[in-house]
Write a structure and sequence with these properties.
With about 220 residues, this protein is α/β, with parallel strands linked by helices. It has seven helices and six strands; from the N terminus they run βαβαβαβαβαααβ. The chain binds NADP nicotinamide-adenine-dinucleotide phosphate. The site of NADP nicotinamide-adenine-dinucleotide phosphate (NAP) has 25 residues, from helix 1 and helix 5.
């Protein structure tokens, strides 16, 4: 039986590279658009998951939003949106797919977190809250799902060359950021996709409950 992977945020950026990686390795790839599964709305998530007509092997929770605002300027709408899309939606997807993965075929869940769950930067209150909690649920679910033969991990990228990064930083800011990264460049989305694939493939037999930083050495400084 062919392997099936469910990837959120597959329309662009990291998620698109992740989808391409799984396609090139022969997986059936489900990448619902926000019209098919709007992560702002748990009932949309539930109804999309119910319509999946097969068991699945891998979930990659990649979609995310990062609205930058200091706490004084952070609106309730933006805070709630980050908590919903970056934290509660991944939880809901995993919950909805419970019973549809693992046991006889190994299952893998990879949540895309961020270095801002390890180190701080102004204006990232809501985003850091959501991503830090995502690391926490990764550890908890690693325990809850170990007996189901499902390995659960997170990946915490640093700066990746995507629309999200360009939206939140000007070209000159990106040049300064690159100079601060020990490897002197942003990551390509493919480099994140390679790690997602490693953690979700037969090569991973013993890593679970971890959040793996992939940042060119940025947080080591
Ligand atoms: N880029 C970075 O430097 C970086 C660093 C660390 C962590 N990350 C994390 O990596 C992940 C991907 O980031 P990216 O840079 O690839 O982002 P991106 O280019 O901005 O893409 C975001 C994706 O999330 C989807 N999405 C957003 N809101 C949604 C909603 N309500 N319902 C369904 N889909 C929704 C978007 O779909 P639409 O096309 O419909 O908008 C898009 O596919 C995120 O979790 C982000 O926090 C990124």
């Amino acid at each position: 039986m062919g392997k099936v992977v469910l990837i959120t945020g597959g329309s662009r950026g990291i998620g698109k590279s992740v989808a391409e990686k799984f396609i090139s390795n022969g997986y059936k790839v489900l990448t619902p658009s926000r019209i098919e599964m709007n992560l702002e709305n748990n009932s949309s998530i539930e109804s999309y998951c119910k319509r999946i007509d097969s068991d699945i092997d891998v979930i990659v929770n990649c979609a995310g939003v990062n609205t930058i605002a200091t706490l004084n300027d952070l609106t309730d709408v933006d805070l709630n949106s980050m908590i919903q899309i970056d934290l509660l939606a991944p939880l809901k997807i995993i919950q909805c797919m419970n019973g549809r993965m693992g046991n006889n075929r190994p299952g893998y869940i990879v949540n895309i977190s961020s270095i801002w769950s390890f180190v701080a930067k102004e204006g990232r209150c809501g985003y850091s809250a959501a991503k830090t909690a995502l690391n926490g649920i990764t550890r908890t679910l690693a325990l809850e799902y170990a007996s189901k033969n499902i390995l659960v991990n997170s990946i915490a990228p640093g700066y990746v060359n995507t629309e999200l990064t360009k939206q939140n930083n000007s070209a000159s800011e990106i040049a300064v950021i690159a100079s601060l990264i020990p490897l002197k460049r942003l990551a390509d989305p493919e480099e994140i996709a390679n790690l997602v694939y490693f953690l979700s493939s037969d090569m991973n037999t013993y890593i679970t409950g971890q959040t793996i930083i992939i940042d060119g050495g940025y947080v080591c400084r």
